[in-house]
# Entry
Amino acid sequence: MKTLLEFIGMIASFAARVITSAWRSPYEFEQTWMQVGEIGARSLPLVAASGLALGVVMTLHTHSTLVTFGAAAMIPKVQSLSFFIEIGPLLAALLVAGRVGAGIGAVLANLRASEQIDAIEVLSVDSFKFLVVPRVVACILVLPLLTTFMDLTALLGGFLAEHALSHLSAQLFIERAFNGIAWSNFVPPTLKTTVFGFLIGTVSCYYGYTTDEGAEGVGRAATNSVVLSSLLVIVADVVLVKIIFLFFPGSAL
Amino acid sequence: MTESQPAAIVFDGVSKSFASKQVLQEVSFSVRQGETVCLLGRSGTGKSVTLKLLIGLLRPDIGKVLIGQDNISSLESDDLSRLRRKMGFLFQSAALFDSATLEENLALPLRRLTDKSNLEIEYAVHRALAEVGLAADRYKMPGELSGGMKKRAGLARALVLEPEILLVDEPSSGLDRITASEIDDLLLEQKAKRRTTIVIVTHDVHGARRVGDRFAVLDRARLVAFDTLQCLENHESKTVRTLVGGQ
# Structure
């Protein structure tokens, strides 16, 4: 129990250091921009492919059921609502946790094992601000963008499947998909991914930056980053959904 | 080197342990300005830990580490950062940033810590790489370099800010005798040209005898000898005599 509490305390203190360091100059704009490119560009194909495939699958699943009940016209709206509100944000975050979290954990652990973090420190550069803060900020900035991209590719996949099944036109699909959708259905759930980004970035950086197990720690940091950040994303989602319902009651399905 | 010269480094009663393992126990010595001190000892006797304590990567459990007048173990991060600008560190693995070219490796401290223009930085980087014979390799990535080239590049990066104190961890490890000797030549050149204070951790007695002014011998977490080569060659301890190559 003490070890668990110690661990929670260490992660919390690491997260607090991220927050305080992010506001202190010098600001690492160049590094942050590089990480946005790195994390965003590298995750984009995965997120796009997953969104497209899930859009198709979701339509295939819902089509026959809704047709049976004479509600085929609802398919685009079911698709858009479910992706905007829950599937898009959560899935994008889990994909990023797997793809980026492991990468960040492994890269930082490797820098630690090869003494490159010490080398940065002895050059009078704050390695925490130089390596950790830009990665966390990049995760925060990139996740809402990737989520939006996943939502859009899922709609595209849904349209392609629906078009193949019932020859529905693109214009009608879009009209039905966005009919009755409020900004509160899209904006708060998409913005909640900034919290997911913070969690993924912080946890992955924590495991990578603080490892002291040499080369062996690299693999361990990558694995632990994915496991804990995915778990925290799911737990945080429960809390955030409740908070969103509290402030935006109309955003519920 | 005269005894009247002021101390650039004072290691005063320093003890350091990791978990239950005592790595250094009440170690004291001082290094004069412009002097080269070689730290010798068997593996695991705390030589590299001593270097990390000197540059503030580790803090002593007990004792003081003075760089000039500053107690490095009690400095806050901004002051520590300012003090480190006077120091260079060559890591055993060279620790070059593997995602950056040699030029970028050397330019990083200049961009961050000086007001030099891009042109001045380019010139300083070129000069530093030329000094270690790597001017033609400035656009290479560390992965493209041999062990000896990495060491030389690491040395160039450590020297690019023209430090007053240079700390060197195992300059000859993994290198053949000729390449190791080239690194020793570069250290000797640095010593002669800029009168840099140098502390070298090494197992290479041959190189140490060429470069060092005084020698510190660590054994079982304690400093067992600290003197010139002539004195240590006739030291009462067989370990000391063996380590300095007197026997």
